[in-house]
Design goal:
Layout: E1 8-10, H1 17-24, E2 30-32, H2 34-50, H3 79-89, E3 94-97, H4 100-115, H5 123-134, E4 138-139, E5 142-144, H6 153-164, E6 170-173, E7 176-179, H7 180-186, H8 199-204, H9 208-238, H10 248-252, H11 257-269, H12 278-281, H13 312-315, H14 317-339, E8 347-351, E9 354-358, H15 366-394, H16 418-434, H17 456-492, H18 499-511, H19 522-534, H20 537-546
Parallel strand pairs: 1-2
Antiparallel strand pairs: 3-5, 4-6, 6-7, 8-9
Length: about 550
């Protein structure tokens, strides 16, 4: 566990995406707020004293069945069996496994929901989840099977079964998959844990798997937007673009917030660029088709007509990247509220010296589903405009004198980068197929008990895939733009790159070399560079040179 920094304190009110990522990926230590611990204990004491008798009125999931069985009373002697059977019957997940980081995020979010003290669970449930997170014991959870209506029942049931040490449950511990009970024993924890009244229903209610996927995807999408703006800057420099369109006075003529912030980040990246100027655009490059060798490296004679304006994928970048930023700000607001909400059913509320119980619908995942539909849509469009810039870089009809396919030597013997570019196109096509709305797809389930569902878990899982595809598309643009800059350097050496662009090119070349001579095994170059995009090292190097891009 990571104990170098202060622990993340869960209080049901102040969990942030950054803290959740720190726990899910960085294994930051977790604790429950002391006041929350006291409040949870007090609420549970009241519940056990007053509600867990056969004389208590019917209360959903405390002493009744669930779903269509809501009117059937569960006797006090059968409560533990009912709660245990609830986990067994709801463990209906299938498909590929949820990534470890998503399972960990799901567990954190469940604890934080309990910390709001509207669920009535025992502290033993909270402490078990905290122990599992802090000991890095992660349930093995199949990812498919939730409709996001009464929450993500099936994946959460698999999580809960592992918590309980059920014999069928598996966990990952110390890089090994083993039975949950065996992992607990090895870690010095009790091998099994019983669930009592309300424990199981609270554990599996809420669109928490959806939210875990969503928060991580939105976090990655924001970093991706910055990386895509860096790759844009390299393409602008490689194509010697006209950059007057990014002036702030231009942005103020149509003052969308995201568009203006993106334009400001572009200006920061290309600040002091001599490459994006008219004198640089006049230079004949060695890759220019039919150029006479005596003219290469010299200004065009007679001079070329001014560029006037560039293609949309260059000139309209703020108008496309900007809506992504605005959407991310909206999405983050939705997810921030969801992260700090009570999302199971029923909920309890303090009322003078007692508590009241209210059945409600906060488990419904529609907010998450619609936010993830929006995320998939804007990230797909972001990947599409990046791919169009990549296409221009290899096309001699569009790249202003760069060699076709960015081949350094021996065209024909070497093929260059067209298949790298088409990989990006293939991923954009996949994203286009994936970004159709999931939240508007509703079928009734459970004999019409759940007559409207959100489909939030699929929406969020799908959006994670869209973001990962887009990360690869941005990687392609970075690789091609860097190759283009290297190829043109011999003729444009006197025209400096912008401060941020130079830092980006250096960062790319730190992890992958330029292609000179024979074609390289591009699979490994793409894989290595994508890792640097995903882990943020390319962006960090750029921001070290120019400051935060503020995206």
């Amino acid at each position: 566990m990571n104990t170098e920094h202060a622990p993340v304190i869960l209080d049901g009110r102040s969990l942030t995406p950054a803290s959740l990522v720190a726990v899910a990926r960085g294994h930051q230590w977790l604790e429950l707020d002391k006041e929350c611990r006291t409040a949870l204990a007090q609420a549970r004491e009241y519940i056990e004293t007053n509600w867990l008798t056969d004389a208590a009125p019917l209360m959903y999931a405390f002493n009744t069945g669930v779903g269509s069985l809501k009117s059937l009373r569960i006797g006090a002697k059968d409560v533990v069996a009912f709660q245990t059977n609830l986990i067994r019957s709801h463990s209906a997940s299938t498909g590929e496994l949820m990534p470890k980081e998503v399972v960990r995020a799901m567990m954190v979010l469940r604890v934080n929901a309990f910390a709001s003290n509207h669920s009535g669970v025992r502290l033993a449930m909270v402490d078990r989840l905290l122990d599992m997170l802090n000991h890095d014991i992660t349930p093995i959870v199949a990812s498919k099977g939730s409709v996001g209506a009464s929450g993500d029942l099936a994946p959460l049931a698999l999580m809960a079964g592992a918590m309980m040490g059920m014999p069928e449950s598996k966990v990952e511990y110390e890089s090994e998959v083993l039975s949950a009970a065996a992992a607990f024993e090895r870690a010095g924890l009790a091998p099994t844990l019983d669930v009592q009244a309300k424990d199981a229903t609270a554990l599996i209610n809420g669109a928490t798997a959806s939210l875990a996927y969503a928060v991580l995807a939105a976090h990655d999408a924001r970093a991706l937007l910055s990386s895509a703006t860096v790759s844009l800057a390299l393409s602008l420099e490689a194509l010697r673009a006209d950059v007057a369109c990014f002036q702030d006075r231009v942005m103020l003529a149509r003052p969308h917030k995201g568009q203006r912030r993106v334009a400001a980040s572009i200006r920061k990246l290309i600040e002091n660029s001599a490459r994006c100027t008219e004198p640089a655009r006049q230079i004949v490059l060695w890759g220019t088709p039919n150029a006479e060798s005596s003219t290469v490296g010299l200004p065009q004679n007679p001079p070329l007509a001014p560029r006037i304006q560039d293609a949309y994928s260059l000139r309209c970048a703020p108008q496309v990247h900007g809506p992504v930023l605005d959407a991310l700000d909206y999405i983050d607001g939705i997810l921030q509220t969801e992260m700090n909400s009570a999302t199971d059913n029923p909920l309890i509320f303090p009322e003078d010296d007692t508590y009241e119980i209210v059945s409600a619908g906060h488990f419904h995942g529609q907010y998450i589903a619609q936010a993830m539909d929006l995320l998939a849509l804007v990230v797909t469009d972001l990947s599409a405009i990046c791919d169009r810039r990549s296409s221009r870089l290899i096309d001699p009809a569009c790249n202003f004198g760069l060699p076709a396919n960015l081949i350094a030597e021996r065209p024909g013997v070497n093929s260059g980068f067209p298949t790298v570019q088409s990989m990006g196109t293939g991923l954009v096509l996949e994203n286009m197929g994936l970004c159709s709305p999931a939240s508007a797809t509703s079928l009734p389930a459970k004999g019409n008990t759940e007559d409207h569902i959100s489909n939030s878990c699929f929406a969020a899982r799908r959006s994670r895939t869209v973001v990962q595809n887009a990360q690869a598309v941005v990687t392609v643009e970075l690789l091609l733009a860097a190759q283009a800059l290297d190829l043109s350097e011999r003729n444009l050496k006197q025209f400096a790159l912008g401060v941020g662009s130079q830092a980006a090119l250096k960062a790319v070349r730190t992890v992958v070399p330029a292609t000179w001579g024979e074609d390289r095994w591009v699979h490994d170059d793409l894989d290595t560079l994508k890792k640097a995009v995903v882990d943020g090292s390319i962006l960090a190097a750029v921001e070290a040179a120019v400051g935060s891009l503020d995206l």
